[in-house]
Design goal:
- The chain has about 190 residues and is of the alpha+beta class.
- The protein has one domain.
- About 35% of the residues lie in helices and about 25% in strands.
- It contains four helices and eight strands, in the order H-E-H-E-E-E-E-H-H-E-E-E.
- It has an eight-stranded mixed beta sheet, covered by helices on one side.
- A hairpin with a 2-residue loop joins strand 7 and strand 8.
- The radius of gyration is 31 Å and the shape is globular.
C-alpha cells in the first residue's frame, strides 16, 4: 500500500512538474512574441521618424531647364529605348499646320517622358530605366555616394535622405533612392513668362 501511495505521489509530482514546465515554456513563448512585436513596433516607429527627415532639398544652380544627356526627340528616344517604347502625340489647335504644336508622350514600361516637340523648356519625366541618363551620367542604379559626389553635395544629412530634390523657380528634379541606390528620377520644368 505504501508503494501504491508513493507511486501515486510520484506520478502526481511528475505531472505537476510537466505542467509547470509547459507553463514556463508557454510564458517564454509569449515573452518572445511580445519582444518580437515590440521590435516590429519600434521598427515601424523608426520608419515613421525617418520618413519625416527623408527629403533633402537643394535650391540649386543645377540645370533643370535641360538636364538630359539625350535630346528630347522622338528618333533619339527610339534609338535608346527600342521597340518597347510607345509614342502618343497630341496636336494643339492652330490656324495652319505650321502653327500647331505637338505634345509628345513617350512610354517605356514605367518610364514616361512628355515634352513639346518644337519648344524647349517644357518637359516632364518619370525615369525608371538605366538606359536614360541625366546631368552627365547619373542614371538608375547609381549608388547614393556616387550621386552625391557627382552633384557636389557634402552635407552629411544628404546621406540620410531617401529623396534628394533640386529646385529652381520653374521646376524640380527629384531623385529617389532605395537601399542607397537610385531607383526613380522625376523631373519637371515649366518655363516662366
Amino acid at each position: 500500500m505504501k508503494a501504491t501511495i508513493i507511486s501515486g505521489i510520484l506520478i502526481f509530482a511528475v505531472m505537476a512538474c510537466k505542467d509547470s514546465k509547459k507553463e514556463q515554456t508557454k510564458n517564454q513563448d509569449i515573452a518572445t512574441i511580445d519582444s518580437i512585436e515590440q521590435i516590429d513596433v519600434d521598427k515601424k516607429e523608426s520608419k515613421i521618424t525617418q520618413s519625416k527627415a527623408k527629403r533633402y532639398v537643394v535650391d540649386s544652380e543645377v540645370d533643370i531647364y535641360d538636364p538630359y544627356d539625350f535630346a528630347l526627340q522622338i528618333d533619339t528616344l527610339k534609338a535608346i529605348l527600342g521597340k518597347e517604347m510607345t509614342i502618343e502625340i497630341d496636336y494643339s489647335e492652330g490656324e495652319s499646320k505650321e502653327d500647331r504644336e505637338a505634345f509628345v508622350k513617350i512610354t517605356c514600361k514605367d518610364t514616361e517622358i512628355k515634352f513639346y516637340e518644337n519648344r524647349e523648356g517644357l518637359h516632364f519625366s518619370n525615369i525608371t530605366t538605366p538606359k536614360l541618363s541625366v546631368l552627365d551620367g547619373i542614371k538608375i542604379g547609381t549608388p547614393k555616394q556616387t550621386f552625391l559626389e557627382a552633384m557636389k553635395i557634402e552635407d552629411p544629412q544628404a546621406l540620410l535622405a531617401s529623396i534628394i530634390v533640386f529646385t529652381d523657380d520653374y521646376g524640380a528634379m527629384e531623385f529617389f533612392f532605395e537601399n542607397d541606390i537610385l531607383s526613380l528620377m522625376k523631373i519637371y520644368y515649366e518655363e516662366g513668362d
